[in-house]
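In keeping with the milestone schedule agreed at the kick-off meeting, the structural modelling team has produced records for the first pair of proteins. Each record is given below as a sequence line and a structure-token line. The laboratory manager (R.T.) confirmed that both were archived under the project's standard naming scheme.
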Amino acid sequence: MHVHVISGDGEAKFWLEPDIELAKNFRYSRKQLKEIESIIEVHYNELIGAWKKHFTS
């Protein structure tokens, strides 16, 4: 499971399992990546639930 993050500043892909981990980064700064990872942590259960709903429906 993974999540893509896209904005005017860049793009990134984070693995959600087995741990939250940066897979790819294009133009985000380290500070931005830390902020994104924090948001992913806060919404982790919601992201996993949405992934499962989308790919098992």
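The second protein of the pair:
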Amino acid sequence: MYIGVTNDLKRRIYEHKNGEIDGFTKKYNVSKLVFFEHFTNIEYAIKREKQLKKWKRQWKNELVEKENPNWNNLYLNI
């Protein structure tokens, strides 16, 4: 599961889906958006990103399943 911050979600997903960014998502072929949060303040967004990255995998899965129980690709709806 990849967690990151961006100011343009559609662009970032496009870049990941097309292998334009080296790193975790390219290495593990991560290309499905299953959860996102919107922030108007970048400092809050970065704080939340750091918080989530410290979470256990199970907690992250539970967060996704609470909002998106079927793990649908949300990219198609944004």
